[in-house]
Fold this sequence. Notes:
disordered N terminus, mainly alpha, Tetracycline Repressor, domain 2
Amino acid sequence: MNNETMPQQQFPAGNPGRQRIVSVARHHFFAYGFRGVTMDDLAKELRMSKKTLYAHFPSKVALVEAVLADKARSVEVDLKRITSDASSDFLAALHLLLALVQGHLEEVQPPFLRDLQRDAPEIFRFVETRRRNMIYKYFGKLVGQGQSVGIIRKDIPTRLIVEILLGATQAIMNPEKLTDLGIAPKDGFSAIIAVILEGVITETGRATL
Length: 209
C-alpha cells in the first residue's frame, strides 16, 4: 500500500449496507481500539452473518482502511466548509475550526492509534501523511487569511508557521508521547494551538480576541 491507495477507496453509490457497516465499525474501532474489536463483535452488532460482513470487507484491515477513508472524507468536508470564506470573519472561522478539530479528535480514542501503530504500521503512516496534508492545506489557508486581515503576523511566512505546527503535532500527537504525558489527543492539540497562536497573533488580534 502507498500513500495514494486509501484515499481512492470509495463507497459505491447506493450501497447503504456497506456504509452502515463502516459507520458501526467506525464507532467501535475508534472507541475500543483495533485489537479490542473483532469481526465477530461487529457481525453481532450489525445483526448479520460473518459471511455477509466478509462479502463487503475481506479482512479486518480492509474494514479499518474503509473506516479511515470515511473519517478523512468527513474531516475534509468540514474543513473545506469552514475555510471556504474565512476572510470575511477570520476569528469566527478560527473558533469553528478549532472546535471541529477537537470534536474529530475526541472521536478517536488513544487505544485505536496505539493498536494501529503496532498492528498496521503502513496504515498508521498513511494517517500521519494525510494529517500533514490537511494541516498544510487548511490551516495554511486560514493562516494566510489571518495575515490578510491583520490578525496573524505577516513577518513570519505562512509556510514557516505551518511547519512549526506540523513539527509540534508530529512530536506530540502520537500514542507514545500522549501516553507519556498522560493527556488525551484533543488536549494535546489544544495546547499546541494555544502556544503557536500566542506567538503569531498581532496586537490587533490580541485586542480583538
